[in-house]
């Protein structure tokens, strides 16, 4: 199996698997076109960097995959410019809202699903610990696999919980995309994974290749590519972790 991942920006990627291209969590607005993230100390507009590819890039996709509906994962530009007939795969909690935005072919994945030869397993996540998780709403990850039994785990905006550790222990995915920016709200509440969580993942599943994203684009993310790269080097994880630049393609 060949997997190509083009990291676009933040949590947005183009994933090509079995010859099908899936747009993940589209934030397609240009620099400064989105408001500040609420409940943070950061009052500047987002994103902080421009889109690295032209919008025409997204005319040639086969499906859209959504982990949750925060505006840095499905923004106003994506709602406006994406073809409304494109299949959208999402969690059941997000199904009706995506339909209300005019998308005509929306399929929710409760536990498992199948599309164009690709099997999907939904992994329920937590966007934070404790009661803050309820406030931030539901978020999911997805495992994509093919008949060759190699898999890609899109973790989503999740903190590292025991159920997610169990997923890594059970499935040992070939590749995982981890939002590892240590995003924080007020009172230093961390709502995504951190560099230390990458170390834990690789202790559980040493054969997994980690694609670390969600950095240097949204103001409440406190881990930069530079800081993560230093951590990865110091902890001798260079062979296991890729930190792509915006627009960069990675091949497996």
Task: Output the keywords.
seven-stranded mixed beta sheet; alpha/beta; single chain; Metallo-beta-lactamase, Chain A
| Lateral strand order in the biggest sheet | 6-5-4-3-2-1-14
- Name of the top-level CATH class: Alpha Beta
Largest sheet: 7 strands, mixed
Helical region count? Answer: 6
CATH topology: Metallo-beta-lactamase, Chain A
State the end-to-end CA separation: 8 Å
Radius of gyration over all CA atoms, rounded? 17 Å
- Give the second-level CATH assignment, the architecture: 4-Layer Sandwich
Q: Please report which band the strand proportion falls in: under 5%, 5-15%, 15-25%, 25-35%, 35-45% or over 45%.
A: 25-35%
Structural class: alpha/beta
- Total strand count, please? 14
Percentage of helical residues? 10-25%
């Amino acid at each position: 199996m060949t997997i190509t991942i083009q990291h676009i920006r933040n949590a947005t990627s183009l994933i090509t698997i079995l010859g099908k291209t899936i747009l993940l969590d589209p934030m397609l607005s240009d620099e400064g076109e989105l408001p500040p993230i609420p409940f943070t100390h950061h009052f500047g507009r987002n994103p902080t960097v421009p889109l690295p590819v032209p919008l025409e890039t997204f005319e040639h996709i086969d499906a859209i995959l959504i982990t949750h509906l925060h505006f840095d994962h499905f923004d106003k530009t994506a709602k406006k410019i994406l073809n409304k007939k494109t299949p959208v795969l999402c969690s059941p909690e997000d199904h009706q809202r995506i339909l209300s935005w005019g998308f005509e072919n929306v399929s929710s994945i409760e536990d498992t699903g199948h599309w164009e030869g690709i099997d999907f397993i939904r992994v329920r996540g937590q966007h934070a610990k404790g009661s803050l998780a309820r406030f931030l709403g539901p978020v999911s990850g997805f495992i994509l696999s093919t008949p060759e039994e190699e898999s890609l785990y899109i973790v989503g905006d999740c903190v590292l919980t025991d159920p997610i550790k169990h997923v890594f222990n059970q499935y040992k995915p070939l590749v995982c995309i981890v939002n590892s920016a240590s995003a924080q709200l007020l009172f230093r509440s961390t709502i995504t994974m951190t560099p230390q969580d990458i170390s834990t993942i690789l202790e559980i599943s040493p054969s997994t290749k980690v694609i670390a994203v969600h950095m240097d684009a949204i103001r409440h993310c406190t881990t930069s590519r530079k800081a993560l790269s230093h951590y990865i080097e110091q902890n001798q994880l260079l062979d296991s972790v890729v930190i792509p630049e915006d627009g960069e393609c990675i091949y497996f």
